[in-house]
Structures are given as C-alpha cells and as structure tokens.
Write a structure and sequence with these properties.
Length: about 325
C-alpha cells in the first residue's frame, strides 16, 4: 500500500492507494469519526481484483490538512477535495464508495459532478439527507425532535465537545464510539455519562482489534476531532448552499446498503424512505437497497467481506 499527499483545492490531502496503476479507480470515502483506515479490509481486496483502491483522509482528518476556519468545511470545499484527488489520479470516471459522511459527500459529488462518477455504492446514509428547502435549518429540527443533547446539536458549540473529549481521553472516545451498537439516537448528555466511568473497561467486538484502536487513537491524538466536527457545524450552511440542487435526481447507477441496527436507519422517516418508492424516485438508477440484519453503523468494518463482495458485484457490471 502506498501513502501519498495530493495537493489540490488549497490543501494537502493524504491518500492510501493500492492496486495496479492502470486499474479502474475505486474512491473510498470514510465517515465520522474514522479515517482512510476504515477501508483497511476492502482496499487489498479490491486491489487483488485489479482495481486501484484510493482511500483519502477527508479534510480535517488524519494526515490531511485541517484548515482552522469552520467555513472551510462546507459541502463545496469537501467535494472540491474529492475532485482534486480524482483529477490527480485519472482522467476517467471513477467508482465511488461512501460511508456515513463519506456517503453524504458521495451523493453531493454525484449531484455536482456526475461526469466524474461511473457508479456509486453508498452505505448508511441514504439520499433523504440530500438538499432540502434552503430556508429550513436542519439543526433546529433535530434539536426539537431529539433535544439539546443529540450529538449533532452538541457539536454546534465551538470548543465544547472538544473540551469534553480532552477530559474523557481520546482512547476512551474511540472505543466508546466505535463499539456503539444501539439503534437509539446518539445522545451525549452534558454530564458526560455516555462515556462511562474511567475505570470501566470497554470490550471490543471481534471486528475491532487493539491494533485498530491504537491506529485511530494515534491519529486523533495528533489531529484532534475539530475537523470532523466542523462538518456538522456546516449542516445549516450546506442546506442554504444546496438551494440550486433542491429537487435534482442522482443520475448515477447506485447500490445502497445499511444495517438494521444502524442508528441512521432509525432516524425519523429513514426506514420508510429506503423501503418505499421515494428513494428510487430520487435515484432512478438505484438497485434494490440491501438491509443487513444484526449489523450496526460501522458496516464496512463490521462486515468487511460482505461489503467487499457487495461493492465488487455491483461495480463489475460497468
């Protein structure tokens, strides 16, 4: 596996790359709060099949640059970074695979630049989170529904969640978040009770090793969480910026998968959106969505071989 920096869109973007230089590019986009490393199982699997797997650390994460201004983390900045990575590697269209925030950015990429995408595999976040009425503030809606302690609401106050993470400790945060399996809303009470007593051991599931935890901890100790949290601090702003794309359809062949224990699957209206006709109306080239039983949010890490197979079975058609 090769690690390199791509200079583009005003920043240095770290990418992990494996596979033949002339292989079709598969761009793998991680979510919050992970890194390129969340695709550690799929990268070699794709490379072995002749694909060129490319997994960046998104802006603000890992070994990529993290501009200090919150305003540098809008949907346009983030998709601009992806275009810079694609353009540095190939003149052809690429396959795109996204999870969590990476999935949301993949939807935006297909809206803004469908000329760059051959086909899309998205995990966990359906297109129901796409452009809405620009006068609506999504965070206000989430606050009314879930209360002030819902994680996206807690993330809005600059410095607050960073101070809490610093107090709790990065290792505990990594363990607690990556092992979170509840389909219930992700609530972070201000009394810090979510993180549990400091002397309490947080056991790891079979799909997450101590080595994996150590890698995440080392990178977040270097970079902190502010960059990743700044994505959420632009939720309302993004909704304003996306006004021109309200009502647009995704015109890219798409496969979608989610776990039935994923907290996103249990957000209001998401299950109905995925299982009803609206998803297919918004994404006309969508194949039948896959709902994986007993699988939670970090689907590509929890079910690495199944997700690799799902990706390959779909993109091999193009």
């Amino acid at each position: 596996m090769e690690h390199r920096k791509v200079r583009g869109n005003g920043i240095d973007i770290h990418v992990a790359i494996q596979g033949p230089s002339d292989g079709p590019v598969v761009l793998l986009l991680h979510g919050f709060p992970t890194l390129w490393y969340s695709w550690r199982h799929q990268i070699p699997g794709l490379a072995a099949l002749g694909y060129r797997a490319v997994a960046p650390d998104l802006r603000g994460y890992g070994d990529s640059d993290a501009p200090p201004e919150i305003s540098s983390y809008t949907c346009f900045h983030l998709v601009g970074d992806l275009i810079a990575v694609i353009s540095a590697l190939t003149e052809d269209k690429v396959f795109v695979v996204g999870h969590d925030w990476g999935a949301l950015l993949a939807w935006y990429l297909c809206l803004f630049r469908p000329d760059k995408v051959k086909a899309l595999v998205n995990l966990s976040v359906p297109f129901s989170f796409g452009p809405k009425d620009p006068t609506v503030k999504p965070i206000d809606g989430l606050r009314k529904f879930y209360g002030d302690d819902f994680y996206m609401c807690r993330f809005q106050e600059v410095g607050e969640i960073e101070a809490e993470i610093s107090e709790v400790g990065i290792e505990r945060v990594v363990r607690r978040v990556l092992t979170y399996r509840s389909p219930q809303p992700f609530i972070l009470p201000k009394d810090k009770s979510f993180w549990g007593p400091k002397d309490e051991t947080i056991p790891l599931p079979s799909w997450l090793t101590e080595k994996d935890v150590a890698f995440y901890v080392s990178k977040f100790q270097e970079k902190g969480y502010t960059g990743g949290v700044n994505f959420y601090r632009n939720f309302d702003r993004n909704n304003e910026l996306l006004g021109p794309w309200v009502g647009c359809k995704i015109q890219v062949p798409t496969k979608f998968a989610i776990g039935d224990q994923d907290l996103v699957y249990h957000f209001p209206g998401v299950k109905e959106y995925i299982q009803g006709p609206k998803f297919k109306e918004d994404v006309p080239l969508l194949e039948e969505p896959v709902v994986m039983e007993g699988v939670a949010h970090f689907i590509n890490q929890e079910k690495p071989q199944e997700i690799l197979q799902l990706i390959v079975d779909f993109i091999s058609k193009f």
